[in-house]
Amino acid sequence: MHVMASNGITEEPPLNRADEAQELLTTLLTHIIPFIRTADQDALTKHTGHALSIPSLLPPSSTNTTSKFNGEERPGRPALVEQHAPKDLEKLLGLEVPEKGGGKEGLMGVVEQVLGYSVNTWDQGFLDKLYGGLMRWRGQIGLVSELLLAVLNTNAHVYAVSPVLTLIERHTTIHLASLFSLPSPHSGGISQPGGSASNSTALVLARNTLYPSTKTSGNGSHRFTLFTSAHGHYSLEKAAQMFGLGSSAVIPVPVDGEGRMRVEELERQHRHHAAQNARRTNDVQFSACEGLAAVVGCDDLTGVLSLPQQQRLGGGRIRPRRTNPQCGRRADSLKLFLALRYYGSAHFSTLIANGYANAEYLLGLVTASPHFVAVTKSPVPCLQVCFYYARDGTLDEDAERNSAATESIAGRLVQRGFMVDYAQGENGKFFRVVVNGNTRRGTLEGLVKAITEEGAGLEG
């Protein structure tokens, strides 16, 4: 509404965005804090192998079992997540876009649904994927960082619009590079949302740095080839498609018994490939995997770097302003920077050590049980432990039956308050459990107990 002042100038109403934001955030906290607290309370029950039951958003009916919550009969659900089939969940959410807004009340109704039907990744039982239950700063400091980034509502593409975040990213990436003894004049980089984006960026940087003409003329007569671990991440194949190499240009290199790329096989395959294509222009990149393979966390980087210089991808100074493939980009480095400032770097050293100790502890529980076959070997190469459920310690000769058992147990674990990943192995799919420095020993004991009990209930 506009008001005409006595001087003839139209007066616009004042902005009350700060007050509205305060009101919404204050109300939002009444939903967020109980969501986090529920995960803390559920942690106390994990050692039993069963989940804490909390009230569902569903109303009581003849088709669900109810319990008393604060004196009220309500259906119960695991604190980790209330699962529904996609079509059922779609009906529960009512995702139609209204013509008239619902205001604060309508907004908080949606917030309640989002929290009520989403996976609570704060829960100790969330041991899925490589971000499963990440370190403590992923939660509290990550929450603060996300709010701060939302308030700034800026972009990390140029210094002019985000001067502070640009400098924070630069210093944070240089700090990380220093941990790998990389000299600061030739190190640094950009923050990426994950390993897939990082692999794509690495591939295009390697090509553009060594063959600058490809930036304007394309791949031309070059026949680029990418050698990577046979257990490597699928994102490398996708990156090869995106940048014109084609998926057939990705050559899988066999791995050893621990899932690491065999350096002698890498060298042999390179020689074989070069001999076969001597009459054509062939340019090579070796991609060693770190943290993206199914079983092992890191390839033998020392071995890869020991290859003759002419067989390795050369290096050069990469200017940070030229390393960003996209225009818009979140300044996720702020999260790590705030965590480092809040906890200090020494904290992360302890946290990582605790994470490896927890992985060894879980592996010890697995190897001590007569009902598991470990895939991971001690010392653990990373913060994940891989194993099969095998009643009486004997795997089925049929890999598909092993896969079916793994998938079935993993699905049933959710009702017990655990969510774990699985991956394909030579003997079928195996469990792939991700731990961290704050995973409680009781959580791991409860997980093993839950898998054992669910496995015992399988037919055959």
Automatic annotation (TrEMBL):
For this chain, one GO molecular function annotation is: transferase activity
User: Which region ranges are annotated with the description Disordered?
Assistant: 52-76
Its domain of life reads Eukaryota
- Residue ranges, compositional bias (Low complexity): 52-67
Provide the Gene Ontology terms for cellular component.
Answer: cytoplasm
Q: Which family does it belong to?
A: Belongs to the group II decarboxylase family.
What is the protein's name according to its record?
Pyridoxal phosphate-dependent transferase
Q: Which organism is it from?
A: Clohesyomyces aquaticus
